[in-house]
Design goal:
By secondary structure, the protein is α/β, with parallel strands linked by helices. It has one domain: Alpha-Beta Barrel (TIM Barrel), CATH 3.20.20. It contains 9 helices and 15 strands. The chain has a 7-stranded parallel beta sheet, with helices on one face. Strands 4-5-13-10 form a 4-stranded antiparallel beta sheet, with no helix packed on it. Helix 4 runs parallel beside helix 5, helix 5 crosses helix 6 and helix 7 packs across helix 9. The longest helix has 15 residues. The chain starts with 5 loop residues before the first strand and ends in a 17-residue tail after the last helix. Bound molecules: succinic acid. The site of succinic acid has 15 residues, from loops. Succinic acid (SIN) binds next to loops.
Length: 306
């Protein structure tokens, strides 16, 4: 019998598999597909202080082994998430969740987190400073160490749960941003968000996405994400949640060997809605195949002796 439990900042999860924010709605939408309580947790749809309609369409484009999105943080706003979406989810999901929060200013992040505090259902806040699809916020904070430090510090001052910061891969050296967040008091880091990309319609001779650019996700970015988790693990002491193109139990194991304590699954949920269930069911078999008794023993294992 293998042990799939992992612990994030004192919160023990039955397994490390978590649907990534933006690919699983507010969770309850998937409750007819399978019993959500199989999951380690769920990272809810990115939430901002005020409701947002998101970017104009088209905002999705296919790519080989991936997907470009420019959704633009469509969500009903922090009050509605706190009072309506989370209560709907609590009817079908009986574990703690990750609240993913975005903003356009320090005050936005602080206000949204304050609106979402005092909820027993929250395991941790995931502060998204890496959305590539909005102007005047999002990724702008995640590509500059000073801004990343400021947002992290401001959120830490009001949050009543651990604060994890979601990092952008669209930087020269992600470890500099990671170190700034750790220094500002972050309890952990989630990485990576999507890589900025573009597609052009040959028929129209213009970008397919109305916003011109979008964030690339899916299996194509897995090696990039893995490398960044590996690099950041070498520099910081706080736990990491690995994200980026994970679509199998073997990918989960690789991410953990690189240094992730837990792993989020994104685009795979859009390819098959029961992707996380399949990965969770496959995990014990793959652990046995690789003689892994306890998942927490392999975190960062690829660094030993390299
Ligand atoms: C979006 O809503 O544009 C995607 C969220 C993100 O990339 O952080």
């Amino acid at each position: 019998m293998v042990n799939t439990q992992v612990t994030l900042s004192g919160w023990t999860l039955d397994n490390p598999v978590i649907p990534a924010s933006g690919t699983f709605g507010f969770g309850y939408e998937f409750s007819e597909v399978y019993d959500l309580n199989l999951l380690g947790s769920i990272s809810l749809k990115g939430t901002t202080l005020a409701p947002r309609f998101g970017n104009p369409t088209p905002r999705i484009a296919e790519t080989p082994a991936g997907l470009l999105n420019s959704v633009g943080l469509q969500n009903p706003g922090a009050e509605a998430v706190a009072n309506e979406e989370m209560s709907r989810l609590s009817r079908v999901f009986h574990k703690k969740v990750i609240l993913n929060v975005s903003g356009f200013s320090k005050e936005d992040y602080v206000g949204a987190v304050q609106a979402l505090c005092r909820k027993d259902m929250v395991g941790l806040f995931e502060i998204n400073i890496s959305c590539p699809n909005v102007h005047g916020g999002g990724m702008a904070f995640g590509t500059d160490p000073d801004s990343a430090y400021e947002i992290t510090r401001a959120v830490k001052a009001v949050a009543d749960k651990p604060v994890y910061v979601k990092l952008s891969p669209n930087v020269t050296d992600i470890t500099q941003i990671a170190l700034a967040c750790e220094e500002a008091g972050a309890d952990g880091l989630s990485l990576i968000n999507t890589l900025m990309g573009m597609r052009i319609s040959l028929k129209d001779r213009k970008p397919i996405l109305k916003n011109r650019t979008g964030g690339l996700s899916g299996p194509a970015i897995f090696p990039v994400a893995l490398r960044m988790v590996y690099d950041v693990y070498e520099k910081v002491r706080i736990p990491l949640i690995g994200i980026g193109g994970v679509s199998s139990a073997d990918d989960v194991l690789e991410m953990m060997l690189a240094g992730a304590t837990a792993v989020q699954v994104g685009s795979a949920n859009l390819v098959r809605p029961d992707a996380c269930k399949a990965i969770i069911e496959e995990l014990p078999h793959r652990m046995e195949a690789y003689h892994i008794e306890s998942l927490s023993d392999i975190i960062g294992g690829a660094h030993h002796g390299t």
